[in-house]
Amino acid sequence: MRLKLLTLALALTATSLPSHGEDLLDAYQQARANDPVLAQADATRLSTGEGVDQARALLLPQVSAGLTLSQSKSSGSQSFEDPNNPGQVIDTSGFGHTRTRDINGQLSQSVFDFSKYANLKAAHSAAEAQDQTYQAALQALFVRVTTAYFTVLTDEDQLTFAKANEEALKRQYDQADQQYKVGIAAITGSYQAKAAYEAAKAQTIAAQNTLDNDREALSQITGKPTGDLKKLRDDLPLDPPAPNDPDEWVRTALESNPSLLAQKDNVQTAEHNITAARAGHLPTISANVNYGKSASWYQNSDIHQNTPASTTIGLTLSVPIFSGGLTQSQVRQSIYQRDAAQDSLESERRQVKASTLNYYRSVLAGIAQVQSGKASVQSGQEALDATRAGYSVGTQTMTDVLLAIQTLTSSESSYSQARHQFILNKLLLKQAAGTADLKDVEAINALLQ
User: Fold this and answer.
1) Chain center to CA of 48
2) Who is most buried in 200, 208, 232, 358, counting CB within 10 A?
3) Helix (H, G, I), strand (E, B) or coil at 133
4) Minimal CA–CA distance to 223: which of 36, 442, 18, 22?
5) Does pTM top 0.85 for this prediction?
């Protein structure tokens, strides 16, 4: 009878919503394409990477050109020698406005500027840090999708157990009420059964609400409505972590965790920024080539004045002498920022180590929890059957039956949560070690049916 009630409750939880995918891999693929958190991390990575090109550009030749057209009006008369007839003076009275055209071009190349080289190295380190941050976001997506998916599965189980519990208590209440009406049982048993039944109805409503909310949470990641999902199969492999050595997992995490690697790159960026700030005390040398040509003419005259084109080549040496303490302040600021980055690195290192060990121990504990949970469900079912049989012959009370039903429901709920959490903890251990990838999602997906 208990199996029939479970089947009925499971059927009642089925929905007709359009499905975003039947299994975990489908959910991940949808999230990979639609998740705004990962898209933001990718855009930030690309934006930071442009800093490398911008820093490198300052070390490459800089070419510019300009054209200036101007017009001026003189209030008096001017005289100049006719360029076409030497010795003849021309009076500009009545020629109108004077118009001038200037053409210029400039090529400059940094020869020595230590700060620009340091800024380029800092840009590379910042880009590498953001690449690692993106990898951390990608691994976090594996965990977020799997967590949301298994949360829905857990909620569905909780709703199934709640409905089965409600049905069982309804049967018990109907039986107790009937026995009271025919005079073979006291009304106390009917009251007890009704109170338990009403409480079970409230639990079912709460379980349904939780399931609806967590379905929406999964849809928030995938960008698609959440439909029917494949369940975790019964024959769950309870393998310990491989390698079965916590120290080895910690070593892997300290070498591979992308969030930790990003913090190391941030420290390198800060070190390069210190070098760039200190370079503010050093001289800079640049090479320059300038070209210029100008011409002028008058509004009411065919006379033109052309200045011969000129080209200037030279080196410019710039030596900083005093900037009001700006450079010293920038150096101190960069050192403080480096110290903050080092503190953040140490904090992240400790967090990664602690998380790795916690999830390693959680996986080991999860094996025992799943095994004991399964045994608890079997024992709870046997205890309920025996208690009902005792109640029918008068050796057990209604309170005993109600307690046995609630104990079985609690055991089923704990067993479901332990199974799902065991799978999640294995993935969380991989994430803490920095080795989570799509193959892990595929392996979990293979456990669904």
Assistant:
1) 16
2) 200
3) helix
4) 36
5) no
